[in-house]
Task: inverse folding
């Protein structure tokens, strides 16, 4: 008997809660209907999705612009490094490949050395090419360790 009474009370409470929530929703839909001029809640849902998508799409160019800026600065830096003399590129602290090596970007340092060798192959002597190749190989080995 107590169980039955408890079940009835819980059912009434549940119905009271759901009916109060549905009136809240209907007033929400009415205010949104005025906002969007629609009577169908599915249209409202679709419009909300469209608004979310449009806000996400407007955020994409910022990311793309940052990536583009990074690539542009990297290419300018690459051009600048490839124009350095051998002594500046290989032997000057904080210049050439050493900038990347010091920041522990070993792969970029190794790729930069290889690019420098291929660009200046005609002007570098055998000893300079061997020295740069040795640095490149050492950096490659170091990057494989980490």
Result:
């Amino acid at each position: 008997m107590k169980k039955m009474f408890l079940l009835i009370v819980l059912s009434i409470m549940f119905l009271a809660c759901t009916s109060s929530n549905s009136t809240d929703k209907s007033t929400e839909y009415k205010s949104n209907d005025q906002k969007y001029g629609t009577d169908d809640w599915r249209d409202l849902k679709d419009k909300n999705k469209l608004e979310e998508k449009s806000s996400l799409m407007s955020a994409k160019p910022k990311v793309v612009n940052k990536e583009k800026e990074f690539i542009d600065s990297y290419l300018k830096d690459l051009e600048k490094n490839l124009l350095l003399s051998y002594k500046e590129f290989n032997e000057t602290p904080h210049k050439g490949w050493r900038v990347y090596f010091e920041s522990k970007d070993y792969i970029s340092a190794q790729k930069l050395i290889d690019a420098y060798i291929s660009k200046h192959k005609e002007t570098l002597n055998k000893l300079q090419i061997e020295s740069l190749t040795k640095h490149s190989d050492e950096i490659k080995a170091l990057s494989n360790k980490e």
